[in-house]
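Take a record.
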Amino acid sequence: EAQLVESGGGLVQAGGSLTLSCVASGFTFDDYAIGWFRQVAGKEREGVSCLSAIDRDTDYADAVKGRFTISSDSAKNTVYLQMNNLKPEDTAVYYCAAGGSRVAVATHPDYWGQGTQVTVSS
């Protein structure tokens, strides 16, 4: 049974930082692209950042480029999202998802987690 579990969300003031973690189990971690997404109630889910399978090349949405950093630790089957200089518009539920490629994880992920709430106050 494949599983992704997010943690690290919370309440932070604008300009502050948070680090999210996504722990994977039940599948071959290094063979899957892993992405972070976020969603506000009533809005479409938005891609934030992703790592390619195996070589772990990175992609970032324009809205977070220069502020967020995605990384992974294969020994821990964990993907991280370091979020710096947070803005109120970053407020959302953040989810991680896994798929066979970066395109696949953005369009039809095989697995996704339950999410963690990030709230940024002004």
The mean pLDDT is 97. The longest strand covers residues 18-25. The longest helix spans residues 102-107. The two ends are 40 Å apart (CA to CA).
